[in-house]
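Hi R.,

Here's the chain you asked about this morning:
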Amino acid sequence: MIGRSQSDSNWISIADMMTALMIIFMFIAVNYIVQIVEYKFIEEDIYNSLQAEFEKEIENENIELGPDGTIRFKTGSSNLFENNQYRLTSEFENVLQDFIPRYWGIINSDKYLDYIKEIRIEGHSDTQPPNNGEDSYLYNLKLSSRRANAVLAFLREQPSYKDVSSEEKERMDFLFTSIGFSYARALNDEKAYVYLDSNKIVNNQFSRRVEFRIVTSNEKLVEGIYQYQEIDENE
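And the predicted structure, written out as tokens:
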């Protein structure tokens, strides 16, 4: 009988340990992938629910619905704000009064509770510079931020916020935020981000808009997969 040397035994132990680690990493990666797929189904379900609820408004081009569930209000379909002002027009207030309870009625579903981490009210401006010589980007950043904040403030005055339980109100406080982007995400004629697209000509009418953007947690899952892959490669 040929006996095993000490080095052979050590090699077998290391090989077994590496195999076990590979299996562990494989199960972790599979788990993350399953969760990502689940989040994608949730995103599609949110999109389908919003499309069904706001079918008439979408057909009439009063609002736009993005594939990720983003709702877009743009100038042209309605006058959102007076020129260089952040106070909502009465027309936009009427639109939001109808929109907010219907929108929250969908987003507040229990099946989305663990998947939505933020509902971001975004203000976006055109590239028109101010008349006072102020830095154009900073001026529009201030204006777009105030406009987004005005929409959030209006939301908090509605019965769908004021007349609900403290638990639901706390959830709305946690989820709803506002942010201004100035013209950093200006759009072109194809409604694509100018910065990311080959067409660098800004469509100022499309760029002036307010968006309700749903942020889910799938980004963190993707980051987790990459982190585990890097650990695996370094072993």
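The longest helix spans residues 6-53.

Let me know if you need anything else.
M.
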